[in-house]
Amino acid sequence: MADITGRRAYNTNSSLFIPNVLPSIMLIDSNINDAAFLAFFSKTPKMNTSLEEFKWEVDQFRSLSDTVDGAVTGTTATTIGVDNPKRFNAGEVWVNKRTGELMYIKSVNNSTSNIIVTRGISALNSSGGTAAAAITDADTLIRLAPAVGENSSRQTTKTTTPTQITNYCQQVRWDLSFSRRQVKREFLTGAEMPYQTKKALKEAQKSLNATFIDSEKARYTNDDGDDVTLTQGMRGVPSTHTYAVGGTLHESSLDDFLMKNGLRQGSRNKVLFCSVDVLQAFTEIAKDRLEYSFMNLDSQSGGIGLEVLQYMAPNGGKLFLTEDRHMSENHGGDAFGVDMSQIKRRVFSNNGIDDDLMIIPDTQDKDDMGKVSTLYGDMGLEYGAEQHHFSITGVTGGAKGQSTL
To answer: What pLDDT, in 10s, does the model give residues 318-374?
Structure first.
């Protein structure tokens, strides 16, 4: 194989090019695993944006716990220091996880990070509940429901502020250029055009897959003075739920991570895009319990789909495992889990121009006797809440049970 720049002396025919090509580009090769993430991404909901930078908001529920900041040795002291006073609200009941003592929040002082409480409320009036006990530094307090009296008045509203997240659309372009004679040539082995077109689309498919996995959000000015935007790829998204294995992936630690982290937030059924090392580790852990199934990515009969391995965590959550060749070839031992309900395909389209990935025919200069067709798109990845996704890195093998270390 030789890399060639410029026009090739081979036959082509632009009539075989495909408009709106992203959903169809996966059909040019029977092995979808070559670009598994792109296969799923191409089937996610499309949302247009009127700017190259698009935004979305992520919200979450109030935190259910906080940590005591400073010991309270007595049982009658009512001022307690906490790490995050804004998590508390007057009228609520909180419980000390270690001692079981219930406390009623009378007021909150955000400036001093103190809460004023009524201690041991379940033991008041000889009720027989848990009495007040000494509080140690770093005790965990857990929020329960508010408790109001018979003639209660309006309570202070407590809520959260959504976080705004941004990403960019990225312009992608490939050009196929042929001279007039190249268009007319016919070979004994058949027309060269279908082969060259298929190969060009295949290379674009793999490049797009790599981009939506490995790219990072950026904006800069190139050497020609043009504004360039890069979209954030999926592999760099998870930051809250990450598992650096650094060797053998053991069944017990895997299940612990999935239950407490990977499958804890968002959908309990997620897709794990794996390198072959991670797939092998799962088979070494639970080959007799893995289920093979076909996941149809298209609502139409006979549409695009691929075989996946299904792994069930102890909490009932399911992982659908599939190899992504980009991961195998470039990130051995790694995988990333995706909550597909969070994913959207954002396309920079406005004022009558739809720049979903497409083939634009006849893009040659006016005085060019040949043919040029351009594969072009302007799109980006919306990934929702990063806490809904997770990553696993550094896997060299798998084993049942737990580590003996």
So the answer is: 999 999 999 999 999 999 999 999 999 999 999 999 999 888 888 888 888 888 888
Q: Name the token pair of 75.
A: 């049982």
* H or E segment to which residue 346 belongs: strand 344-348
Q: Which of 184, 153, 372, 398 is nearest to 290 (CA)?
A: 398
Question: With helix as H, strand as E and coil as C, how does 224-263 read?
Answer: CCCEEEECCCHHHCCCCCEEEEEEEEEHHHHHHHHHHHHC
Per the prediction, the chain carries an average pLDDT of 87
Quick one: which of 280, 170, 249 has its CA closest to 214? Answer: 170
The token pair that represents 5 in the structure block: 């720049």
Two tokens, residue 159: 């809520």
Q: Is the separation of the CB atoms in 297 and 43 below 8 Å?
A: yes
Tell me the one-letter amino acid at 64.
L
**DSSP-derived secondary structure letter, 156:** P
Burial 109-131 (b: 16+ CB within 10 A, else e): eeeebbbbbebbbbeeeeeeebe
**Helix intervals (H) in 309-361:** 325-330
Q: How far apart are the C-alpha atoms of 305 and 151, rounded to whole Å?
A: 61
Helix (H) or strand (E) holding 140: strand 140-146
Whether the Cβ atoms of residue 389 and residue 340 lie closer than 8 Å to each other: no
User: What six digits make up the tokens of 264?
Assistant: 């804890």
Tens digits of per-residue pLDDT, 178-187?
A: 778 877 777 7
Token pair for residue 24?
Answer: 């169809």
Contact (Cβ atoms closer than 8 angstroms) between residue 145 and residue 89 = no
